[in-house]
Amino acid sequence: MNKEIFLNKLDDLEINVKNKLPLIKKADLDAFYLEIFGTHGSLNNLTKELPRLGIEERKKVGAKLNALKVNLSNLFKERRLTLVKESSQEVYIDPTLPGKSANYGQVHPISKIIYEVTDIFRYLGFSIASGPEVEWDEINFQLLRLDKNHPSRDTQETYYFNDEMLLRVHTSSVQIRYMQQHQPPIRLISPGRVYRRDQIDATHLPSFYQIEGLLVDSSSKLTDLLGTLAFFVKRLFGEERKVRFYGHNFPYTEPSLEVEVQDEKGNWLEILGCGMVHPEVLANCQIDPEKYRGWAFGMGADRLAMLKYGIGDIRLLYSGDLRFLNP
Amino acid sequence: MRAPLSWLEDWVEITETPEKIAELLLLSGTKVETIEYVDREAVLVLEITSNRPDCLSLFGIAREIAALTNKVLKHREFPLPKRGSVRKELKITVVDPKLCPVYTSIVIDNVMVKPSPDWMAKRLASVGVRPINNIVDVSNYVMFEYGIPMHTFNYDQLLGQEITIRGSSEGEKVTPLDGQERVLHEGSIIIEDTKRLVDLAGIMGGQNSEISESTKTVFLHLPIYDPIAIRRTAKYFGLRTEAVTRYEKKLDLRGTQYAMQRAVSLITQVAGGEVASDVYSLNTVHFQPPTVTLTESAIERHIGISIPTTKVQNLLKPLGFNLEFTKPLGFSITPPSFRRDIAIKEDVIEEIARMYGYNNLPLTLPKGDIPTHPDAFTKDWIREMKSILVALGFTEVYGSTLIGRDDVESIGLSKDETLAVLHPMSRDYEYMRPTLLPGLLEMVRNNLYHTEASDLFEIGTVFYPQKEDLPREEQQLVALSTRSDYRDFKSKLERLLRELGLEIAVQVAHPPPPYFVPTAVGKTGKIGWIGMINSKVAAAFGIERSLWAFELNASEISQQARSDRPYPQLPKFPPIIEDLSFEFPTSTYIGEVIAAMKSQDPTVQTVQLIDHFASSYTFRIYFIHPEKTLTSDEVAIVRQAIVAVVEERFKAKIKR
After folding, report:
1. For the residues B522-527, what does the mean pLDDT come to?
2. Mean pLDDT calculated for residue range B614-624
3. What's the whole-number mean pLDDT along residues B305-326?
4. Does B447 touch chain A (CB under 8 A)?
5. Quick one: DSSP state of residue A177?
6. Which single residue of A99, B209, B220, B340 could bond B198 by disulfide (Cβ 3.0 to 4.6 Å)?
7. Regarding predicted confidence, which is higher, B511 or A177?
8. In Å, how far are A102, A109, B330, B399, B480 from B450, measured between CA atoms?
9. CA distances from A327 to A39, A116, A303, A305, B655 (A)
10. Of B531, B410, B433, B404, which is closest to residue B480 (Cα–Cα)?
11. Residue B387 at interface with chain A, using a CB cutoff of 8 Å
């Protein structure tokens, strides 16, 4: 063995691999790799013959052998990559096949609408509060100027446990509690469950959800109430939705209004009641009505959810029917 | 309240379309529910709020329309005819002025009772009143015109020519016009002559003194009664008449004289007759409307724009308000006597704003300080819990907070531990739920008709009664699954708690709530339970499958949850991984075994249960040291400790 023969063998090996590799199929690649790189492969065999050369020759030839190893390794890598790419080109699927059902739950529509509404008001600096559903008559009615003789105070309307304890008919009771414990500025949203005696039908249930809001500070005015609610309606229903206000009467606000939004067919739908908080109500909560003014509003969450999500019957919301809740 | 436009034109010229009138009324606070057409004439059907009894009269509505359309309101005069030659008196006693503070009456003799003329009968029909005879019809007609109820009696049936108006005692009897005798309770207002009761005052006239065709002399009176007494009596008997609708509100205490004069004029017009007495008038309240002072700047502060006083005057005068300028930019306002809803400056501001037009005001956003109370910033953990459960495949449901006695008993609780509502709607909605479970079980059963798998959750209020106080309310979270594997189900609970920053192990504890299978349930720290629902309970709800559930105190979780869970450091050195298998005696708690293994040495970083068959369990143990690669000798020492503790404490046998 001499240097020339060795170098020729290196060249032959290189040519051999370069010629064969492009024709090697995926199934044969590993076998061919072993032929070249394996324990009994060509490269190893040549390496074993190195000691037969002289020390000086060994150095030069050894360097060339190493360079060839790296070169051939890269060629194999490239070929492997090419084969992978090609083989994936051969995979066939019908992309229009329907997917299987992914395992995913669903938040309830009333939760969704409450979060949508509260997120809009959070943007305006409102925080969220909750309170008891079983409430004192005083907090639910009397402090809101609904004394026991008021026409809307019928036991036909309210569920009582005894003379003083009842199921709240609105979440205004949460606002009263909050005002009793905090001085202005106040910006509060109180969503929650409320109860009213009602015949059950497609739009009425004896218990449902309300979302009420309250703002009290030293500079608030009627145009703020109108502007905030118009802002809210546009965020919830869309920029192009028209809103209108009309006068109404609530014992706890003065002036009192209702708010309507126009649907696609041009019908006006009432969605909110609101007004400037009556000074007596503020005074009942130890908030000085000469220094502070406030406004409040309330809406039915079920009704809003039905409007926004196209739900026709309120009873579906409490049915637990998965076909409806997670179709 | 029905308002035919043609009748309204007695007082105001209407040139706008009915739709436009309806819109103007609605926007300014008088709600028009619908417009009906009767004989091609438009009739507005209005909803009048309880603070505006002046609009329970056509004149009142005409006034609103005149103000809104800038037209003149015609005020009609009805001078009282002089007393005729015949004199017929009646003695009137009002026992309690609180029950009847204002009273006006007169006698009209020589009337001819017969059906009302066509025009009057038609008008009454158009407002929903059935014509009866000309005298009775006049009292209804004028009530609709001017909002003051009144009553006509057959004078000759008022025995002794004397009437007394007083509060009733328990047990007294009266037979009103509908022919049904009523037994009174204490505090109704009644009228009696010298012998018997002749009127259930303010509600319905007495049958014995009603006007009939033979009546020759009419006693007409216009009392104003105590609204609370009228309301109580009307509710008690379930009698809701047009008179009651007005009497239960705050009527114009100065309005009876004019209405009486109008009624006399109309009676003499349609029934003939002559005035036969002086006008009897009683007034014990001498009502004075309050005066409210306002300034331009106060108006601007409340409403948000500057409205000059001249404009304010133009808005309020047509409604009957009187303005006097007190300073350059201030004035004092006196409302008319028929507006007893006006007491404070905010009431006047409402009038100004509604007549200005709410939709004409600019829209502004609040400019005040943003609140910074600490409790405004609490994180909504419940919302977080819902997101996590949804990602784990559960669907949120909302159930009823009121449940039935059967529900309470079916889950093994006693109704004495629950809060019952008075006069429930039905037996199914009687008790405030102490747990979410009954409603959820029903929903699972209903869903099983349509789907194979039901993974539901609810986070809602449960109620624990407290003596002499409101019940304690808690947010409870219950998740249910019909899928069959416990470890699968438990992994969801573990993931939920981990995502909330809580590390709580499930342990064995007794006694569990009665709706769990006692041998298939575990306690999650202090916050709840996880296990299989008792099959008797499930069967009571019509469910034959096995159900897994976890029930947690979401209020408590909200207190403990944290959002600052640290991210792990990646190990610098590779772990040594070993599998160990053991045979355990039955009723070994594997959780305790794993805890014991981990406690042997800090290098036991993770122990996973990777296989289990019968009583044989295989664990995969990851040994990691943070500073170096462990040698097999070091691992062997810990492994031996692990094997020793498992074999000794749990009486297990290692499988080689």
Report:
1. 89
2. 94
3. 94
4. yes
5. H
6. B209
7. A177
8. 18, 21, 71, 19, 17
9. 61, 21, 21, 17, 49
10. B531
11. yes
Residue of chain A with shortest Cα separation from B346:
A254
Alpha carbon distances (Å) from B368 to A180, A297, B426: 20, 18, 48
Contacts of A129 in chain B (CB under 8 A): 375
* pLDDT tier for residue A151 given thresholds of 50, 70 and 90: low
**Are B80 and B275 contacting, i.e. CB atoms less than 8 angstroms apart?**
yes
Q: For chain B, say whether A268 makes contact (Cβ under 8 Å).
A: no
Q: How many CB pairs under 8 A join A and B?
A: 223
Contacts of B481 in chain A (CB under 8 A): none
B375 shares contact with chain A (CB less than 8 Å): yes
Confidence of residue B345 (pLDDT cuts 50, 70, 90): very high
Closest CA to A230 of B369, B304, B364: B364
Whether residue B358 and residue A247 make contact (CB cut-off 8 A), yes or no, is yes
Tell me if chain A has a CB within 8 Å of the CB of B467: no
Q: What percent of chain B has pLDDT over 90?
A: 84
Average pLDDT rounded to a whole number, residues B399-405: 93
Q: Is the CB of A283 inside 8 Å of chain B's CB atoms?
A: no
How far is it, in rounded angstroms, from Cα B262 to Cα B256? 10
Instruction: Calculate what percentage of chain B has a pLDDT beyond 70.
Output: 100
DSSP assigned state of B353 = H
Which of A150, A159, A272 best probes binding to B when mutated, by most B CB atoms within 10 angstroms? A159
Q: Write down the pLDDT at residue B604.
A: 94
Average pLDDT, stretch B208-235?
Answer: 95
Q: What is the DSSP letter of A206?
A: S
Which positions 259-318 of B are in contact with A (Cβ < 8 Å)?
301-305
pLDDT digits (tens, 9 = 90+) for B559-581: 999 999 889 888 899 999 999 99
Q: Which of residues 81-110 of A touch B (CB under 8 A)?
A: 103-108, 110
Structure tokens at B45: 């059907």
- Using a CB–CB cutoff of 8 Å, tell me whether A182 touches chain B: yes
Q: What's the average model confidence in pLDDT over B53-62?
A: 97
Which of B 124-153 lie inside 8 A of A, CB atoms?
none
Report whether the peptide linkage leading into residue A327 is cis, meaning its omega lies within 30 degrees of zero.
Answer: no
Tell me what pLDDT residue B525 has: 86
Residues of chain B with Cβ-Cβ distance to A107 below 8 Å are 386-387, 390, 396
Contact in structure between B74 and B63 (CB atoms under 8 Å):
no
pLDDT band at A62, cuts 50/70/90? confident
Q: Where are the beta strands (DSSP E) in A148-307?
A: 165-167, 186-195, 207-217, 243-250, 253-262, 268-277, 293-300
pLDDT in tens, B78-123: 999 999 999 999 999 999 999 999 999 999 999 999 999 999 999 9
- Sign, CA dihedral A18-A19-A22-A25, equals negative
Task: Dump the DSSP string for A31-89.
Answer: HHHHHHHSTTSHHHHHHHHGGGS-HHHHHHHHHHHHHHHHHHHHHHHHHHHHHHHHHHH
Sign for the pseudo-dihedral over CA of B297, B303, B304, B310: negative
Residue range B497-507: mean pLDDT, rounded: 92
Interatomic CA distance for residues B146 and B266, integer angstroms? 13
Nearest to A227 among B27, B364, B402 (CB): B364
- Name the A residues in 160-179 with CB < 8 Å from any B CB: 160-162, 165, 167
Note the ipTM here: 0.91
What do you get for the CA distance between the two ends of chain B, in Å? 93
Q: Pick from A111, A133, A185: which is nearest to B386 by CB?
A: A111
**Which of B19, B55, B297, B358 to mutate against chain A (most A CBs within 10 Å)?**
B358
